[in-house]
Amino acid sequence: MFRVGVGWDRHRLEPGRLCTLGGVRFADCPVGPLGHSDGDAVVHAVIDALLGAAGLGDIGRHFPDTDPAWAGADSLDLLARSRAKLAAAGWRVVNVDITLIAQRPTIAPRAAAMAAAMAGPLRVEPALVSVKGTSGEGLGPEGRGECVTALAVALLTEAGAAESGG
Ligand code: MG
């Protein structure tokens, strides 16, 4: 059996925030996503796609932004925790496809690094994590560089007994 899920997240960009997207640090970016955690909209969209596919709710249910435990959280850690919840429910990840809409930072040169960063916690090959960037053509809040928005689709399949651990 397969299950598909979709995720969407948007974070405002503010000066002086570290910029981490898809688990990759953009050290040269003068703005970064505002958030209770590290604000990594890409990973948050992936988490929502995974949880949605498994029928396990959403990121806010599992990692509420009212809980100090998740203040400044590394979203890759939340991703690993989410994958473990899927495994406990009998699911494993087949593939993930992501579109990141951002005027800044520039995504394409770091897309492969993002895929590799997320593949580890997802326990899949990097080739099964697709990251695509688009600028928004200067339109809307993404195009004005005010925010980043990420869309993700995830496909799950039933985990075999040997694959469901952890
Ligand atoms: Mg978020």
- Regarding quaternary structure, what we see is single chain
The share of residues in extended strands comes to 25-35%
Main sheet record: 5 strands, mixed
Number of domains: 1
Provide the list of bound ligands, each named once.
Answer: magnesium ion
- On the 0 to 100 scale, the average pLDDT is 94
Q: Structural class, from helix and strand content?
A: alpha+beta
Do you know the CATH architecture? 2-Layer Sandwich
Tally the beta strands: 7
Give the fraction of residues assigned to helices.
25-40%
Number of helices: 5
CATH class: Alpha Beta
Low-confidence stretches: none
| Distance separating the two termini | 21 Å
Computed Rg: 15 Å
CATH topology: 60s Ribosomal Protein L30, Chain: A
What does this structure look like?
This protein is an alpha+beta fold and 166 residues long. The protein has a single domain, classed as 2-Layer Sandwich (60s Ribosomal Protein L30, Chain: A), CATH 3.30.1330.50. Helices cover 28% and strands 30% of the residues. The protein contains 5 helices and 7 strands; from the N terminus they run ββββαααβαβαβ. It has helices spanning 41-53, 59-62, 75-88, 111-122, 140-143, and strands at 2-15, 20-21, 24-25, 31-33, 91-101, 129-134, 147-158. The strands form 2 sheets. It has a 5-stranded mixed β-sheet. Strands 2-3 form a two-stranded antiparallel sheet. α1 (41-53) packs parallel to α3 (75-88) and α3 (75-88) crosses α4. The longest helix is centred in the middle third of the chain and has 14 residues, at 75-88. It is globular. The two termini are 21 Å apart. The mean pLDDT is 94. The structure holds magnesium ion (MG). Magnesium ion is lined by residues 9, 11, 35, 41, 44.
